[in-house]
Amino acid sequence: MIRIKIIAVAVIVSIVTLGFGGVYVLSEARFRDVTLEAKFDHPISTDAASIEHGRHIARTRGCFGCHGQQLEGQDFGKQWDWPERAVAPNLAVYARDHDAATMEAAVRQGIGADGQALVSMPSFNFARLSDEDTAALIAFLKSAPVVESDLPKPELGWAVRWMFVTGNEKHMAWWADRVPPLRVNAEAEPRLARGEYMALTMCNECHGLDVRGFTLWEPYLPDLAMVAAISRQDFETLIKTGIGIGGRDLELMGLVAPDRFPELSDQEIDDLYAYLSSLINEPPAEGVFWRPDIQ
Ligand code: HEC
Ligand code: HEC
C-alpha cells in the first residue's frame, strides 16, 4: 500500500512538474520568436541641441512617467493586473551599459538586450519614431545623470505565461510589427505629415494603432477623428490637462497627459489638431485586430 501511495505521489509530482516546465519552455519560445531588423547605425550627435531635442522626445513620449522622473526606474508592483510584477528598469544605468543598436531594438522593435521580446514596455508607440528622433533620444538617455536605485526583479507569473502559450496574449515585438505605416506625403502636405507622425508616436499607445479607436478590451477608447468636433483651444486644454470635455474624468488619460503633453509647442499642437481633425473625412479601417466588431 505504502509503495503504491509513494508511486501515486511521484506520478502527480512529475505531471505537475512537467506541466509547469512545459508552460515555461513554450512561453520562453514565444519570447524568443522575434526577428531583429538591421542594427541601428544612425549617427548619434551629442551636441546640446540634439540632447535637448532627445529630452523633449522622452518627455512627450512618456519615458519619465514609467521609468521615473529621474529615469531611476519604477517598480509597478502588482498595480497592473498584468504581468505579476512589472518593473521598468533604471534607464540612465541601462543607457550607460548598452550601445545605441541595443537601445533602438528595445525602444522601436520591442526586443530586449537579451534578444527576447519585451512584455510591458509599449514599444508599438515608438515603432514609427524617425531615425533622427531615435538618435536624439539615445543621445539624451546616454547623457542623463545616473541616480542609483534598488529595484526588485520583474515576475511574469504562470497565468500570464499560459496566455502566451495559448496565443491569447502577444508580446511587444508582435505589436510593434503591426503599427500601420505613415501615409501622408510630407512634401505635398507637411503639416498633416507632422501631425500624423505625432499621433502615431504619442496617441496610439491607447487610442488604437491607427488612432481610430480601440475596442479589443475595456475601457474602449474613442476614434481621435472626434477632435474635429472641438475647437483648437479646447483641444489644447484637453491634452495638456487630461480633463475631458465638460470636466469629465478621463482616468488613464488624466494620469499621463499632464506628465507628457504640457510642453508641446503651439506648432506641435496645431499640427496634431490639423491631422486628427482631417480624419473625419476618412472611414476607419475595418478588420484590424485592435478594433474587432462589437456585437
Ligand atoms: C507604460 C510604461 C512604459 C513607458 C511609457 C516606457 N517604458 Fe520602457 N519599459 C517599461 C517596462 C515595464 C519595461 C521592462 C520590460 C518589460 O516588461 O517589457 C521597460 C523596459 C525598457 C528598456 C529595457 C529593455 C530591455 O533590454 O530589457 C528600455 C531601453 C526602455 N524601456 C526604454 C524606454 C524609453 C526610451 C521610453 C520612452 C520613449 C520608454 N521606455 C517608455 C515600461 C515603459
Ligand atoms: C495612456 C493612454 C492614453 C494616451 C497615450 C492618450 N490617451 Fe486620450 N484617452 C485615454 C483615455 C483612457 C480616455 C477616456 C476614454 C473614455 O472614458 O471615454 C481618453 C480620451 C481622449 C479624448 C476624448 C475626451 C472626451 O472628453 O471624451 C481625446 C480627444 C483624447 N483622448 C485625445 C488624445 C490625444 C490627442 C492623445 C495623444 C496626444 C491621447 N489622447 C493619448 C487614454 C490615452
UniProtKB/TrEMBL annotation:
InterPro entries linked to this entry: Cyt_c-like_dom, Cyt_c-like_dom_sf, Cytochrome_c550/c551-like
PROSITE patterns for this protein: CYTC
Annotated signal peptide: none
Transmembrane segments: 6-26
Alphabetic keyword roster: Electron transport, Heme, Iron, Membrane, Metal-binding, Transmembrane, Transmembrane helix, Transport
A GO term for molecular function: electron transfer activity
Positions in coiled-coil regions: none
Database matches in Gene3D superfamilies: Cytochrome c-like domain
Start and end residues of each Cytochrome c domain: 49-145, 190-280
PANTHER family named in the record: CYTOCHROME C-553-LIKE
Name used for this protein in its record: C-type cytochrome
